[in-house]
Amino acid sequence: MLAPERNQFPDGLFDADRADGRRWWLAHTRPRQEKALARHLAARELSFYLPCRAYRRRAGRRVLTTQLPVFPGYLFVRVAEADRPAALAAAAVARLIPVADQARLWADLAQVRRVLDLGLPVTLVDRLPPGTRVAVRTGPLAGATGVVVREASRRTFVIRVDLIGRGVAVVVDAEMLGKLGA
Questions:
Q1: Mind listing the pLDDT tens digit for each residue in 140-161?
Q2: Is residue 126 part of a domain?
Q3: Which domain holds residue 93?
Q4: Contact between residue 136 and residue 176 where contact means Cβ atoms under 8 Å apart
């Protein structure tokens, strides 16, 4: 396992003075560029938070562990208006999105950090209401498309896969699904 990269700067980010003139921004990154942006911001000593979770997979007889962003494609940046151009200068940034409710985001990020620090297993779950068209991204059904029929549990969904004018329903883990068009 590689040593985890820095996922926040500074170390005491959540202990910092909230009234120091810096604001949270949501950085939408180019595909798979979250860690590159984190390195860019750390090198320039700009505050950021990139929530990551441990992901384990088998490669032959070995178990590999890596850190994956909890929110793929996004990183949270906390900078003063004067430092915003330096954050935008990274090639990894697609755009910076302003955050209207600073207090709410601060509280939400602190909760996410607390859960991750406890080492609890987390899964990114998009809301997939009934009727949502989805594609199965991984597993034996990879490539199949269907429609969410209902939520079977917090982490599984029943999807209908149409075949020759008839359909079958199958329970699929949320991590295996992606919204069509997403």
A1: 778 878 788 777 765 555 655 5
A2: no
A3: 8-117
A4: yes
